[in-house]
Write a structure and sequence with these properties.
Growth Hormone, Chain: A, 0% strand, globular, 3 domains, mainly alpha
């Protein structure tokens, strides 16, 4: 192998990852302009984001398994081309429904590229540098998170909302060309052997997608119709039934989409649990804080957007450093340390008042984002240590599923807490009320609800740090051994 191959492979995937994150941030900024163009309201236009996210979550597992069967390179290239087709269709849309459907096509392509891109990068690096590889991916995610809103704002102001969909097309095509020229789709390089020995689990893919859709539809509508309304209860019942059916089928089928027996391995099961709890306790912060900055403190949207930039920089810098150090000194101290940093940041935010200073908000967001950056690379590395390389595609997809699901559930819980607090104090139980009824005391109700929401997030993070602390027996928290076999059925940390 060319010793520089790992860097070439990372460069190819880095361009695609950066473009994907930038696209998401750009579209979010363009929503008000899109709503004005189609004479629609924000809740309707938000389906451009919701439909995109739901499609990704529903298809991550099937696309990860497909990559393990036919090769990560094939699925990544095909997914990138689907993403480009969806972007062009979205940019040319003359009807809002066509635009939403185009975003669903984009989500399909994104589901094909998210997990496979990570699997390609991880497989290109030796096992002793797995944490470094994941950290480098985090750098591109953090950089894209910084550039996305800024790029979207510039494109919308200069060229209109359609430009945000066309803007990332050249980057995606460059990533495709690099992947075709560089990536070697064979077992040793990609972890996705070209083999037909397995079969694609169509029934399992359908069940898992249906279960996730039921859960997401219930969560996204619960704060409007009520958590005890019959549609939400029906969605919950459907999710539980389909989840049980999925577990039964995966344990029975000889070629399952996800090897559920992996949960018997401590590194895998407890790593996944702490990962979900980390995102559950962190994601709502970046969703709720802009509401506070704009509608309580009165800052302009542009300044509110800049407030999150220092935290994104911290995540981009600390992610690869933490991954590299965890390769040498073990995972646990970095997963625990990162979660403690996030707990500190969110705890500070839980004390915000109606006249708090940005000098309190910015450092707290930096601590929270630094904790995320320190946690993610070592945690992901520990999970992958328990998995055979020819399953890296589906497991990478599963980890992205955990991240996306944690994001959605976290935002839903925080929104429900804030809205319920506002309703109990006599105000409209909606986040929109803080914009339409400003100056009538609603700011106090919102800030109190925000305090309760952030304290709930702290509780989730405390659970995550407990899982990370107790996950391994003393004495096996060690870095990977260079040259050690990675195809063992059971692996401890290192």
């Amino acid at each position: 192998m060319n010793p520089r191959y790992k860097w070439y492979a990372f460069a190819a995937m880095a361009v695609g990852t950066f473009a994907s994150v930038v696209d998401h941030g750009s579209v979010t900024v363009a929503l008000p302009s899109i709503a004005a163009h189609f004479h629609s309201d924000i809740p309707t236009v938000q389906w451009l984001v919701i439909g995109f996210a739901m499609t990704i979550i529903a298809l991550l597992l099937p696309m990860g398994r497909l990559a393990d069967l036919v090769g990560s390179k094939r699925v990544y290239v095909a997914g990138s081309l689907v993403l480009v087709a969806g972007s062009i269709s979205a940019g040319l849309s003359s009807d809002l429904m066509v635009l939403i459907l185009s975003r669903i096509v984009q989500g399909t392509g994104a589901a094909m590229t998210q997990g496979t891109g990570m699997a390609i990068v991880i497989a290109a690096f030796p096992p002793s540098e797995r944490g470094k590889a994941i950290g480098l991916i985090m750098t591109m995610v953090g950089t894209g998170a910084i550039a996305g809103p800024a790029t979207g704002g510039i494109l919308v102001d200069a060229l209109g909302w359609r430009a945000v969909f066309f803007g990332t097309v050249p980057l995606v095509l460059i990533s495709v060309a690099m992947a075709l020229a560089i990536i070697r789709d064979n077992p040793r390089m990609t972890g996705s052997p070209r083999t037909r020995s397995g079969r694609f689990d169509w029934f399992g893919a359908g069940i898992s997608s249906a279960a996730l859709m039921a859960l997401l539809l219930g969560i996204t509508h619960a704060h409007k119709t009520g958590w005890t309304s019959w549609p939400i209860l029906a969605a919950g019942a459907a999710f539980l039934f389909l989840s049980g059916l999925f577990v039964w089928w995966e344990l029975k089928y000889p070629y399952p989409m996800l090897q559920l027996r992996l949960f018997r391995r401590r590194n895998f099961s407890q790593g996944v649990t702490s990962n979900f709890l980390m995102f559950l306790g962190s994601s709502a912060v970046l969703f709720m804080t802009p509401f506070y900055l704009q509608n309580v403190l009165g800052y302009r949207p542009s300044l509110a957007g800049l407030v999150v930039v220092p935290g994104a920089f911290c995540m981009a810098l600390i992610g690869p450093l933490s991954g590299h150090l965890s390769d040498r000194f073990g995972w646990r101290k970095f997963t625990v340390g990162g979660t403690v940093l996030s707990i500190t940041g969110v705890s500070i935010l839980s004390n915000l008042s109606e006249d708090s200073s940005l000098f309190l908000v910015v450092p707290a967001l930096m601590l929270q984002s630094s904790g995320m950056g320190m946690f993610y690379s070592p945690n992901t590395s520990s999970i992958l240590s328990a998995v055979r390389r020819n399953n890296h595609g589906v497991v990478s997809g599963f980890l992205n599923l955990i991240r996306n699901a944690g994001n959605v559930v976290s935002v839903a819980i925080a929104t429900a807490i804030v809205a319920s607090t506002m309703g109990a104090m006599g105000y409209e139980p909606s986040l929109d009320a803080i914009r339409t009824a400003a100056g009538s005391g609603v700011e106090s109700a919102f800030t109190l609800g925000l305090k309760y929401a952030y304290l709930t997030m702290v509780a989730f993070l405390v659970c995550s740090v407990l899982v990370s602390t107790l996950r391994l027996r003393p004495g096996i928290d060690a870095p990977p051994i260079p040259g050690a076999p990675i195809e063992r059925e059971v692996q401890t940390e290192g």
